[in-house]
Amino acid sequence: MKLILVRHAAAIISNRNRFLTLDGRMFFRKTARTMLKAGVRPGLIATSPLLRAVQTADILAEILSYTGSLVVLDELERDFDVAVLHELLDDYPDLEELVLVGHEPDMSGLAKSLLCLAECFSFEKGTAIHLKIDRNDLKAPATFKWLAAGSKLITSRKEAFPALHHP
Description:
With 167 residues, this protein is an alpha/beta fold. The chain contains five helices and seven strands. The longest helix is centred in the first third of the chain and has 16 residues, at 22-37.
């Protein structure tokens, strides 16, 4: 199945109710348009309950003309990992494409686990990673499809994770 991980866009530095900055909204709109061009058509968009993530998910839903409801999952606020993903997938057995909007370090940690990477990487704000996963075997290595960052669509795993590829 298709799994797209999104780190919320840039937000003000403040308290729990941080909201997206103008630059963050503008950058993520570009990312969402890139995702649209790449053919993203989620059956479900799930988001952290924190405002900055909900705003990011809302922008994505608007750009993709997503007609479903945004599902707010408390688990996406913190400690979202492969085990929680497995539980979520069990709740949606017919789902073919899922978008998760969350935070660091959970989103990069989840990608690291699913891709079986040896090291962590930097998951930039307002970017998205598309993985192909085996929903029945989340221990099997996922396939990296692309990384969307603004108007860039990076399809090379080496280019997407340059710090993990040493000379």
